[in-house]
């Protein structure tokens, strides 16, 4: 147990270092004052819309996790699930060296309702897997706007293989989720679409009106690569910095938009503090 705890701390420290190093490199290329200068002319109406879209994506994420819980006959009320979700966001974003958000959910649900810890963990794992599949699917779908028509059959084949391979893998390894797989996948697509549109509105707030397909692919790719950094910070900015060289869009705006998305994420993660400092009274749903 002690060794696992040490390994977790080392892993989280490593993620923080990666984020710091990448941000240092980014701001060596783009002075931070140039980035913040852009914020003085930002369109706050678009920023508000982006924030609401992000919040909507988190609420739908909560509904998706609820599907996996119910597949195991874990009937947590939506409001209790929502509270746990935001507390998990807070732990993941602001306490990287401590207990993770998913680990907190496993602990608190096992403690309060004596639910099987392995089944809770499998629910959380498949919830994440569904999100990852949606990201990869959307990257391929948006790629239709980036490649010549002769590559369309390859993209379609990759889409179909990815979805059904994941389905049959889920059916074999987690049979209790096979009936909700496609519904959860639909929720995951909706979550990622809302986040992509959220990012587009952030770009619109900086008066960006083109290259949305490229921005969207990079944004989604950064969500996958965020696993190797702290909350995706540094990775996203680095990807946009490099992409600005390849695709000819303004690096200062791309990095600024990325930082704004991080700020929005941090803001809503703070909702977890409110639920954490109040008495966490979890309730089961009425069947």
Task: Itemize the secondary structure elements and their pairings.
Elements (H helix, E strand, L loop, with lengths): L1 H28 L2 H8 L4 H28 L6 H17 L6 H13 L3 H26 L9 H22 L7 H25 L6 H14 L9 H13 L3 H19 L1 H7 L10
Helix pairs in contact: 1-10, 2-11, 3-4, 3-6, 3-8, 4-5, 4-11, 4-12, 5-6, 6-7, 6-8, 6-9, 8-9, 8-11, 9-10, 10-11
Written overview of the protein:
The chain contains 12 helices and no strands. The chain has 287 residues and is an all-alpha fold. 35% of the residues are buried. It has one domain (2-277). The chain has helices spanning 2-29, 32-39, 44-71, 78-94, 101-113, 117-142, 152-173, 181-205, 212-225, 235-247, 251-269, 271-277. α8 crosses α9 (212-225). The protein starts with a helix and ends in a 10-residue tail after the last helix.
Note the main attributes of this structure.
287 residues; mainly alpha; globular
Strand count, sense and barrel status of the largest sheet are: none
Estimate the strand proportion: under 5%
Distance between the termini: 38 Å
SS content category: mainly alpha
Spans of at least 5 consecutive residues with low confidence: none
Number of H/I helices: 12
Let me know the number of strands.
0
Please estimate the helix content: over 70%
Radius of gyration equals 20 Å
Shape: globular
**Topology as a string of helices (H) and strands (E):** HHHHHHHHHHHH
Q: What integer is the average pLDDT?
A: 85
Give the domain tally.
1
